[in-house]
Amino acid sequence: MILNSKIPEGPLEQKWDNYKKKARLVNPANRKKLDVIVVGTGLAGSSIAASLGEMGYNVKSFCFQDSPRRAHSVAAQGGVNAAKNYKNDGDSVYRMFVDTLKGGDFRAREANVYRMAECSLNLIDQSVAQGVPFGREYGGYLNNRSFGGVQVSRTFYARGQTGQQLLLGAYQALMRQVGKGTVQLYSRHEMLDLVMIDGKARGIIVRNLDTGEIERHAAHAVVLATGGYGKIYYLSTLAMGCNGSAIWRAHKKGALMASPSWIQVHPTSLPQSGDYQSKLTLMSESLRNDGRIWVPSKADETRPPNEIPEEERDYYLERRYPAFGNLAPRDISSRAAKERIDAGFGIGPLKNAVYLDFSKAIREQGKEKIQEKYGNLFDMYLKITGYNAYNEPMMISPSAHFSMGGLWVDYELMTTIPGLFALGEANFADHGANRLGANSLLQASVDGYFIAPYTIANYLADEIHTGKISPESPEFETAENNVKQQIQGFMNIKGTKTVDYFHKTLGKLLYDYCGLARNEEGLKYAIGEIRKLKQEFYRDVRVSGQGDKMNSELEKAGRVADYFEIGELMCYDALTRNESCGAHFREEFQTPDGEALRNDAEYQFISAWAWAGENKEPELIKEPLIFEEIQPTVRSYK
Amino acid sequence: MDLHLKIWRQKDKQSEGKLVSYDLRELNPHMSFLEMLDTLNEKLITEGDEPVEFDHDCREGICGQCGMMINGIAHGPLKNTTTCQLHLRSFRDGETVLIEPFRSEAFPVKKDLKVDRSAFDRIISSGGFVSVNTGQAPDATAIAVTHQTAEEAFDSAACIGCGACVATCKNGSAALFTSAKITHMVLLPQGKEERNKRVLDMVTQMDKELFGHCSNTEACEVECPQGISVLNIARMNYEYSRALFFRQKAK
Q1: Residue A66 is nearest to which of B55, B141, B185, comparing CB atoms?
Q2: What digits encode the pLDDT tens for the residues A475-501?
Q3: What is the mean pLDDT of residues B111-129?
Q4: Which of A50, A65, A379 has the CB atom closest to B134's CB atom?
Q5: Taking the CB of residue A495, how many other CB atoms lie within 10 A of it?
Q6: Cβ proximity of A324 and A149 under 8 Å
Q7: Contact at 8 Å (CB) between A185 and A37?
């Protein structure tokens, strides 16, 4: 298979305009003849469902939560980037494009990244018009702050709850369409399979999580905006329900998965405190604007932090990366923390954390100013840990966070299955091997508000004569039967171990062998262990309750079953990339001072994987990355 | 630490529910309340029983999906805290803890501790938005909002829609939830154009959903995890009267 990324012609800054000029349109009278399914109601899902609804298409919107407003975009804290240059500090679309491409370690598609930077300008306008209460200066203008990996202030924020406010804006736009009847809402529904007719995506099979009923929904196009699969590690910053099942089921139907091993580990999450723990809580990266990261300069330090004098503290980020210091990108900050922890300088009861210290900022700016900027984060820290971070430094630790990998999409955000689109974190595009802070909200939003409305219409222009898609076709019948069979299969095992046991065991394997650092031997070992664990799961898992009723255990079982296969693919992907780039750090490929050693001559491509069948090696298809505008350079934040 | 739990078990919407006792021993006080329920469920599944169904997702206090009555208090004893952010250190060793679903006519129980809060979505759908389509927004700087106004609007916009305000209200009123959105929107210039229609539509929808009326006990503010102020309700009442006045005048 040869991948066609469909990058439009012309110079970089004109590509998107050129695309839009030529994209086909659907007459308003014809739009009501066309049905579109959108799975997921986060920033990408809500915004595309609302946009298509506004345009007059018939939209069905699905989410597994009890309300679209719960989607995990709600939890993003720090901010959203836009090259508005309101601070007059030299920002521009071009500079944002360069920063983002560099931040992704030159493993993203140039044209996509440029388009994201370009559309960032409109996103702020759109959100402000919706009533998102972004931080403002006293004169009434929008305020900005800086985020890791960049030297300008381009991040717009709503206290530490930017994701919440952006999501509520998109959710309200979606609910407005629900009220108008252009969007039908199906909350508490989970997609379990993709239905294809004549090679095109034509619908989905879902389970009504409240009643256990299996339903068929047909459409002319299917949009997956289902977020990432970082919860595969079990302990992560993600919501409990985040999963990779929708994209994985689509992958098994022929959509390629790209860069699955590029999972970002976030440097500022709270450390694990015990085995019972279900997740790790993220503290916003914005804290690094004012917080200084350090560990004691003596190993096995037992004194409380406030008793350790300044000269016995190692501000290792400021020491190693003087140009960026505490704002070094996430992969670099995470690895630097792991390096100190592994070397025996970790702090906290389990010696698995580093300090994030606000004493200098409080001394210089006053407690009130810090409270205004990060008050909710300090409150959250107190609730979770019982410690007051105004009086002593926070304890933070790296944790699995964002999946840069996902379904392979072309410039139109369409997967290798015609009519199947993937938006936001569910696709692989834009972030390369490492995501800069405050870009995930941006990508999800611009995909949904500004890009997919054009590209989906371009696809649907061919569909106006297709007529209604019938959910009674044999393809729907087969897909429904397969789903029912899988559910019955889980119920019949009646083993002895819980679903969570398998999820936790898989997660630990991935942390140890396909986490912050990987090597060939470990990855091969992990593949073997994952296969064994999967066999054990199908032999010994216990799913209580009934298959045709509300059943959270059954929901989890399906997701974990998919995680085994995603985990295996992550290891394959990591194994075949003999270089270190961004979030992917292969221990065999590093510079003498421990920095990532990229290999552009051999690995300047996107790894897209085709499903070859269970326990079979997946097939690797390469999309070469061509850089016309800037030439890859070695990332240095020193 | 040890806890004695009394949990509301209800098979489905139609069935009658009852309190069932469970004992948990040697719990870590640093465990969150939901992790304690996970631990109970692991035990129940292993012993061949059905786990307790409860709503939860982000476990960071922001999605609003979790929520239950703990010893008669929505989200438990800590002020301004969601259930997921409540930790066992807030309980005494050996304490009996009563766990029930949020109760309100507008929030029917689905199973065990899960309730149907879709009425909130329908209230938002009736008018809780600015009517702006995608791609037609003016430059963001064209709409100046003072720092104080943005912060005040944010205070209201921060509502997470968990439903604690309804659950704790003796009338099952959704006044705090609805008024928070009305206030958020009316404080900002973008939301002012539709202020009259919005408040009338949202209040009408709130009544249709069988939420009770506000009788100013202010319990909602006390148990709101986001500390949303009852002053929002005062503003909603003002906006409602104002909208009625202008509607009559228009006639």
Answers
A1: B55
A2: 999 999 999 999 999 999 999 999 999
A3: 98
A4: A50
A5: 13
A6: yes
A7: no
